Amino acid sequence: MDNVFILGGLRSYIGVKNSAYRHVPAEHLGAAVLKELTARYQPPKIDMMICGNCVGGGGNITRLMALEAGLSESIPSFTVDLQCASSLEAVITAAARIESGLADLVIAGGFESSSTQPVRSYNPNHPYAAATQADNPSGNPADTCNARRAELSLTYNTAKFIPGPHHEDVMLQGAEKTICHYHISPGEMDAWVLESHRRAYRAAREGLLDGITVPVYGLGHDEGIRPRLNQRLLDRLPCVLKNGRYLNAANACTMNDGAAFLLLCSEQYLKKHKLSPRFRLTNACTVGADPLMSPASVLPAVSGLLERSGLSMDDIGAIECNEAFAAIDVLISRAYPDKASRYNQLGGALAYGHPYGASGAIILLHLMRSMELSESSRGICCAAAAGGIGSAILLEQ
Fold first, then answer.
1. 169-174 average pLDDT score
2. Among candidates 340, 298, 350, 296, which has minimal Cα distance to 316?
3. How many whole angstroms separate alpha carbon 261 and alpha carbon 278?
4. Measuring CA to CA, how many Å separate 350 from each of 180, 193, 198, 215, 231?
5. What mean pLDDT value characterizes the chain?
6. How is 112-157 classified by DSSP, letter by letter?
7. How many CB atoms lie within 10 A of CB 76?
8. Of 191, 207, 209, nearest to 340 (Cα)?
């Protein structure tokens, strides 16, 4: 089995939904970053491209993006949808291709546009549609009220992740249930919200992400960072769920647009082209967990990765986790209390935002930079995904 190395990568600045990138389709946003990546690294031959995307228009949108970017039509490309862990799984899949000898150089990552997310609808043949249309048993076109109600109930934005009725706020409900199950207090979450924005603002102010961020479509900063956020503002925020108690607009991530990609290669490729990358992908772990408490799935993913690698958390110098909810921060900090200063050192998704299909690649780039800054020999990157899936990657510097 071949070793897998990361030559480098780039990400866009992250835009808030309906802001800087509001008229930029996902494939165009991804293509702009991909052009910058290939121009910077000038890979002589790309064997494959594997990317995550969750809320695009469907089909093989990665292939569409690659063609939009002007990549050779001879490069096969395909799309991964594992929701929040999509681009981490794209990287893991790319690494498996290289390990097995099926490829020498693969571009992996993800891209997302919440701003241009399409509205979907159920086919009239679907049982959901039949049940809803039963509100108008006469079929009388004059019964416009019931007909309109049926039409509205057939459309949705968020895919269905668990059996039972289709609730579009299922992720929020799962986070609320996780908070209650683990007895997480508002104070614990607020502390991580404020710390996330503080660390992200410091990273921006000191240019700690310079070299891995690239301006596209006129945006030259991450839009979500709030340096003036304080406890007084947090105390005034209402709950986002109708019957909820804990989730608010600060301790749950925003909806965002962004793109991020990495170049992965084999040891044979390194020798042939006389390259010396700083990072090696050494292991990965994907687990299934309780789909009704998906934020907690990050814990078995991390513990499983450590176990299969023969390591303990004492061997890990940096941790990067997709901060979709502050509850995830609390769970990680409780499980590994000695690692708080090495966790999301540059801030997390509560500050930057969470462009679903791109977030795994974004935090992997952040992990690489955190490992450089803290001179860590090993680091873990992890994410919890809708439906109760946890994904984690181990890097060595």
1. 91
2. 340
3. 17
4. 20, 6, 11, 21, 15
5. 93
6. EESTTPPPEE--TTSHHHHHHHTTSTT--TT-HHHHHHHHHHTEES
7. 15
8. 191
